[in-house]
Amino acid sequence: xxxxSTQRDDVDARPIAYTSQRNLDRLRExxxxxxxxxxxxxxxHEDIALYIHPAPSTHVRWLPIALADKTIxxxxxxxxxxxxxxxxxxxxxxxxxxxxxxxxxxxxxxxYWWDFAGESPVDPVEFMPHPLDPRWVATTETN
Length: 143
Hints:
Elements: E1 2-5, E2 17-19, H1 21-29, E3 48-54, E4 63-64, E5 74-78, E6 83-94, E7 100-107, E8 112-115, E9 120-122, E10 126-128, H2 137-142
């Protein structure tokens, strides 16, 4: 993850975009305002360069998959083919090889983590909780 800033951290940094002081002021008043103008500035503009910086990761971190909430929150009935799918909330998970994908816990004849993109059972080792989910706030703040 990263943030855009008007501060340049290193000498070799190249701006990712440009904006004006007026747009920066509007952005401070309304954070959802789109203030970026892409491309190189014209020489007569008083544009401000924006640089990319790593975002602080105080609330973004991986937790052991054993801590994930496997409570079934979604039930889909496909009675025409005799199948009922029961899954937990979806999580971003990571496996031993470092591959990251979206998965949910699935219960039925067999219990397993299901990779939605790969459409197959998987064995993740970690998951990333949403930073504002109250189930994980204490965990992410203390670690």
